[in-house]
Amino acid sequence: GVAHMLAVLAGFGAACAILSDFEPDLLWVLPLAATAIGACGHVPQIASNWQNGHTGALSLITQTLNVLGAGARVFTTVQLVNDSVAVASICVSFTLHCILFLQIVTMREATARAMADRTSKAKAA
Length: 125
Prior knowledge:
This protein is mostly helical.
């Protein structure tokens, strides 16, 4: 669960700090921490959507903008930086945003039903 992901993230951060202090050649590992942090935010949401069968209150407009922004980051990073680790990290973020976007689109009807059910239960209470 979340506690496990946070423990892994903390361990990764500690390892990066130790490695960066002793091995300057391994500084390229540090940007991967951002990838791990981003994944810790997106993967539980993706799993929750899958388990629930709907995306809840996630916004299609917001997620569309996230996908477009992440796509622009991939493009500019490929064009401006000759760093495969940075490109891979940004591609992971882009992929996770795309998965959330696709969940919103494909689960649209189930989400509408779930939100209607939630609203009717709230009014009845």
